[in-house]
Amino acid sequence: MKLGTEYSVVKHWLKVGMGVASIVMYIYFRDSSWLFFLLFTLLLMIASSQQKTYAIVLENNMLMLTGARLVVRNVVTYNVQDIWLELIYSGSTGKAKDAILNVFEGKKCVRQVHVKEGYTEEEFKNLITAFYVMKTSSAA
Questions:
Q1: Where are the bilayer-spanning segments (predicted)?
Q2: Are residues 97 and 134 in the same domain?
C-alpha cells in the first residue's frame, strides 16, 4: 500500500534558488517591488522548511516514510513488528481535517504525519487497517 507522491529534489532546489536570486536582486536593485518578492520567497522557504512526508509505503513487513526538510530528503524504514500506529485528532476535535497519524516505537512517538500534508483521514484509516492485518499475519 502506498500513500502520497514522489519526492522532487528539483522542486526544492527551485525554492532555494528563488530565495537566493531574490536576495541578490534586492541587494543590486534596491527597488521596493523586489522587497515584496524577497519577503514572499523567504516566507515560502520558511514554510517549506517544515518536515513534510511525501510518501508512506507499507509492504514486505516494512513501513517506509519518505520525507523532506527544505532540500534534505530522508527515508525512514520501520519493521511492522517493532512499531504501532494510532490515529489521533489535534485539539480533540474529532474532525477529519485535524487527523494525525502517529507512529510509535515502544512508548515513544517517533513520527507524526498530518492530514494537512496531503492525505485524508480515510487513507490513514485504511493504512492502519492494512498495517494491523500485515502485523498479525506476519506474526503467525
A1: 12-29, 35-57
A2: yes
* Closest listed residue to residue 119, CA positions, set 101, 95, 94, 92: 101
132 and 120 in a common domain: yes
| pTM attached to this predicted model | 0.68
130-138 contacts, C-beta under 8 A, 24 or more apart: 130/1, 130/58, 131/58, 131/63, 131/80, 131/85, 132/85, 134/58, 134/61, 134/80, 135/80, 135/81, 135/84, 138/61, 138/80, 138/81
Question: 99 and 128: one domain?
Answer: yes
In a domain, residue 3? The reply is no
β-pair partners for 113? 101
Q: How does pLDDT run across 86-110, given as a tens digit for each residue?
A: 999 987 777 888 899 999 998 899 9
